[in-house]
């Protein structure tokens, strides 16, 4: 029997069309997955950086488009060679997808054999066993990424090893060459009214304080001890009697937001621009953070979203305010109104985006060209941190001694 020619062509044509359409959908879904995995990186915090920007891909040679900058992770970050969990293969990140930045692209790699090609070489914090690249090529910038406050560095040799070797500062300070905050706030695109979902009467307890460093330079523990004379504070973790059954951040946060009115977000050190996940994590739940830190909260967190201990003359005044607020449901809930207008995003995608852009434009303030690293980071008289607030209140107001529950250091 003769094959009906026209019919076959038609079927082949239809099959091709279907195939083309199918692969378009597949590509779309893949891209969506990629974007989602990037966006899911937005909830990351200091401990959870590793969940960010995970891109699955098989090992293949990096291809480099002309004009693409190469950024190398020289040290590890914890046990990760590729700091943010990119696979070595798919490291050409279309930056425009990560955050709002231009279409300029950067390649990220941790392959030391390619050091000569790198435009920027990154070093993480005080990562142990630091070895320098054999040659610092003159076109290269060495960037040092720090997430800890300068308090922990004082008196240590932390910065000495970087002195004179680093070109660019990358950290949470506004004056850094690359500003890399823990989190950032962005306006919500489609404004929907935010309705708190937890009935006020579920919140039968006052203040929760999850904490693992018991004695700190900021002396926050003294403040909380004094505070707890006037309002109930439940301490969870290493410095208290309570344990969250599953020590899993999400699980515990969900428990706490149902039971408690307020969440203590006191930093362990009061340093310029230093606002950490301690503040940003509870902001993502239905609980009001009570903050104490060296950062500018009116600039860096959403309006009317936190209660700042600095606005009160004493822990007693703060306790009185919290007690009144807890009893006034409408006023309490006004602290969640910002959720209609803003959301919290992770700092890492924005930082990578800024880094890539600045590298393309070669626009860096370069404070290290004029000053030593130690002076930049700590201040020539240590003025980048000021931990006197609590000790001076304590002296002036004659607070009682620290209770035994907190007398434990890690
Ligand atoms: C590292 O780069 C070198 C030089 O381009 C290449 O030969 C090698 O296969 C790379 N290693 C990995 C693990 O990709
Ligand atoms: C970074 O500093 C080193 C000296 O420490 C210098 O050789 C190099 O040219 C600088 N990089 C850039 C891009 O200016
Ligand atoms: C904090 O930020 C706000 C808004 O940007 C600014 O007006 C204010 O001067 C800043 N405060 C301090 C102490 O820097």
Automatic annotation (TrEMBL):
Residues 202-364 form the Fucosyltransferase C-terminal domain. Residues 68-183 form the Fucosyltransferase N-terminal domain. SUPFAM superfamilies: UDP-Glycosyltransferase/glycogen phosphorylase. The chain crosses the membrane at residues 12-34. Its EC number is 2.4.1.-. Coiled coil: none annotated. Signal peptide: none annotated. Keywords: Glycoprotein, Glycosyltransferase, Golgi apparatus, Membrane, Signal-anchor, Transferase, Transmembrane, Transmembrane helix. This is Fucosyltransferase.
């Amino acid at each position: 029997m003769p094959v009906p020619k026209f019919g076959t062509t038609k079927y082949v044509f239809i099959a091709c069309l279907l195939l083309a359409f199918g692969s378009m959908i597949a590509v779309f879904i893949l891209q969506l997955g990629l974007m989602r995995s990037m966006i899911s990186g937005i909830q990351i915090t200091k401990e959870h950086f590793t969940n960010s920007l995970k891109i699955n891909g098989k090992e293949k040679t990096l291809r480099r488009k002309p004009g693409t900058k190469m950024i190398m992770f020289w040290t590890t970050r914890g046990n990760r060679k590729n700091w943010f969990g990119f696979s070595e293969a798919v490291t050409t990140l279309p930056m425009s997808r990560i955050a709002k930045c231009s279409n300029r692209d950067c390649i990220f790699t941790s392959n030391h054999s390619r050091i000569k090609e790198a435009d920027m070489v990154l070093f993480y914090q005080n990562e142990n066993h630091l070895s320098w690249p054999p040659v610092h090529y003159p076109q290269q910038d060495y960037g040092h990424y720090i997430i800890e406050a300068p308090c922990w560095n004082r008196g240590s040799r932390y910065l000495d090893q970087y002195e004179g070797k680093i070109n660019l500062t990358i950290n949470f300070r506004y004056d850094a060459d690359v500003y890399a905050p823990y989190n950032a706030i962005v306006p919500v695109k489609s404004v929907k009214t935010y309705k708190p979902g937890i009935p006020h009467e579920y919140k039968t307890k006052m203040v929760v304080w999850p904490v693992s460093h018991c004695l700190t330079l900021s002396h926050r523990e003294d403040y909380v001890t004094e505070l707890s004379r006037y309002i109930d504070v439940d301490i969870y973790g290493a410095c208290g009697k309570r344990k969250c059954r599953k020590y899993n951040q999400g699980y515990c946060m969900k428990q706490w937001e149902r039971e408690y009115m307020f969440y203590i977000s006191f930093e362990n050190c009061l340093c310029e621009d230093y606002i950490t996940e301690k503040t940003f994590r509870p902001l993502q739940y239905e609980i009001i953070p009570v903050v104490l830190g060296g950062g500018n909260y009116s600039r860096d967190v959403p309006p009317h979203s936190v209660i700042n201990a600095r606005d009160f003359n004493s822990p007693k005044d703060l306790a009185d305010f919290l007690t009144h607020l807890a009893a006034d449901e409408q006023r309490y809930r006004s602290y969640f109104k910002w959720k209609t207008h803003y959301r919290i995003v992770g700092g890492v995608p924005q930082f990578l985006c800024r880094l890539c852009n600045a590298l393309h434009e070669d626009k860096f303030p370069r404070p290290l060209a004029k000053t030593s690293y130690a002076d930049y980071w700590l201040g020539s008289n240590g003025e980048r941190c000021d931990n006197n607030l609590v000790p001076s209140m304590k002296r002036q107001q004659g607070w009682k001694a620290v209770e035994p529950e907190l007398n434990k250091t890690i």
